[in-house]
Design a protein that fits this description.
The structure is a single chain. The chain has 158 residues and is of the alpha+beta class. It has one domain: Nuclear Transport Factor 2, Chain: A, CATH 3.10.450.50. Helix content is 25%, strand content 37%. It has four helices and seven strands, in the order αβαββββββαα. The strands form two sheets. Strands 1-7-6-3-2 form a five-stranded mixed beta sheet. A two-stranded antiparallel ribbon has the order 4-5. The longest helix is centred in the N-terminal third of the chain and has 14 residues. The chain is globular and about 50 Å long.
């Protein structure tokens, strides 16, 4: 049984997602969970989350945290940090993005009620991803991440 502490629920969600364990999602996700960052072609609820995790796993995985800060208050949990991911290549936001390893800032917010995630929001630095992989030319690519957590400190979470 998964702990009902919201931080533990989100940690188990991360583990299931990183390992592609779609069955473990049932223990932490509400059947009608809303994923506010899904596009219109993705189904909502646990079926959409399973499809998302399975698709990421089959294409190289969803990545993992290189650094993360987690803050929880009541039923809300926020994660912010740097994620490392293998991008499988393919269409993304109207661009053909080649495969490769990326590092980008990400923030995820969760609402956890009665031990289950009912809502999830995601914010990622997609511009940095597309510049790193060469799908968008940048005359000064070193300036693309300027203003993000990684640009001001060499070790931002120490």
């Amino acid at each position: 049984m998964v702990s009902k502490d919201p931080r533990d629920v989100v940690a188990e969600f991360d583990r299931a997602g990183e390992e592609g364990d779609v069955e473990a999602l049932d223990a932490v996700c509400h059947p009608r969970m809303l994923t506010h960052s899904f596009g219109p072609s993705m189904p909502q609820g646990i079926e959409g989350v399973r499809k998302f995790v399975a698709r990421r796993t089959s294409s190289g995985g969803g990545g993992s945290w290189a650094h993360v800060v987690t803050v929880a208050e009541g039923e809300y949990v926020t994660q912010f940090g740097v994620r490392v991911q293998e991008w499988p290549g393919g269409p993304f936001r109207g661009f053909d993005v080649p495969a490769g390893t990326i590092t980008r800032d990400s923030a995820f917010m969760f609402r956890v009620q009665d031990g289950l995630i009912t809502d999830r929001w995601a914010i990622r630095d997609d511009l940095a991803m597309m510049v790193q992989l060469g799908s968008i030319p940048a005359p000064r690519p070193e300036e693309v991440p300027h203003g993000t957590v990684t640009s001001w400190r060499e070790q931002p979470f120490d």
